[in-house]
């Protein structure tokens, strides 16, 4: 069953290729959605896919995307948009 999560990442997540790296990781894990920078220095993402794969992808975003440093994140249920790929919004 496909689920969707909205995720807000906080920390050193802008200016370190975080969005591009998350997009690559999501695509590798079969996750669709999008990611964008926010004016307050955080990054917002929408991820869709298998529940376990979405959760694993979120965790990997927090631990495996050096030199980015995620200090905290908030994740909550979101509406499925049936997206075909994962895109970086500029």
Can you describe this structure?
This protein has helices at residues 18-28, 51-63; strands at residues 2-12, 32-37, 43-50, 69-77, 86-89. The chain is globular. It is of the alpha+beta class and 90 residues long. Helix 1 runs antiparallel to helix 2 (51-63). The model has no long low-confidence stretch (mean pLDDT 97). Strand 2 (32-37) and strand 3 form a beta hairpin. Strands 4-1-3-2-5 form a 5-stranded mixed beta sheet, with helices on one face. The protein has one domain (2-81): Alpha-Beta Plaits (2-Layer Sandwich), CATH 3.30.70.100.
Summarize the structure.
With 90 residues, this protein is of the alpha+beta class. It is built from two helices and five strands. It has helices at residues 18-28, 51-63, and strands at residues 2-12, 32-37, 43-50, 69-77, 86-89.
Sequence-ordered SSE layout with sheet pairings:
Layout: E1 2-12, H1 18-28, E2 32-37, E3 43-50, H2 51-63, E4 69-77, E5 86-89
Parallel strand pairs: 2-5
Antiparallel strand pairs: 1-3, 1-4, 2-3
Helix pairs in contact: 1-2
